[in-house]
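Lecture 7 notes: from sequence to structure.

We start with a single chain of 199 residues. Read the sequence below before looking at the structure.
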Amino acid sequence: MQTDAAAPAAPATPALPKKEVGATHEEIAALREELQRLRERVTLLEKAISAAPAPAPPEPPQADTLMVAGKLHWLHRAKEDPPLPSLSLPDPIHEKALVHNLRVLSGNQISIRSAAGDETARRLAERFKELFTEAEWHVDGVAELPLHQREKGLALAAGVLPPSRETTRTYLAFTAAGFALESRLDTSLQLDETMLIVA
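Now the structure, written as tokens:
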């Protein structure tokens, strides 16, 4: 009668040296401390979020903002008509429309800058200053501004996005009067500052 041979014994797992076992215990303890610190931070964040006041609902648009578009003078161009030349003085029709629109939006302030070293841009900027002053706006400028040669035409710069109410209304006044304006963000400006750039 044959008997089954005994199965070979599994090789014994080598024991870790005492030094390595001690290091492992220290690492585990350090990880547990770090985990506890993270849990405490999460708890503090949850308390701070729950204690923060709920954001206030946006204010409804004011009546004068809703009605302003209907008070402006709009100059419509036919599709085949060329746009106004960027660095030529506007004709009396566009000037009259712009002054009217700026008066509708009176009480604001604007800074006017012209491209440094460009006499044509300076003359046009000075003319815009006269129109803003006629519309009873407070004007800062005209001063020269160093610009890249590729920056040409009229631009309206704001210090924040979305632009402030004043910047938006200024843009609307120019657009309704038939002027093409480029929008720019200039973080060096104050949050409520609007700058007209002529280049």
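The chain has two domains: 18-52, 63-198. Keep this in mind for problem set 3.
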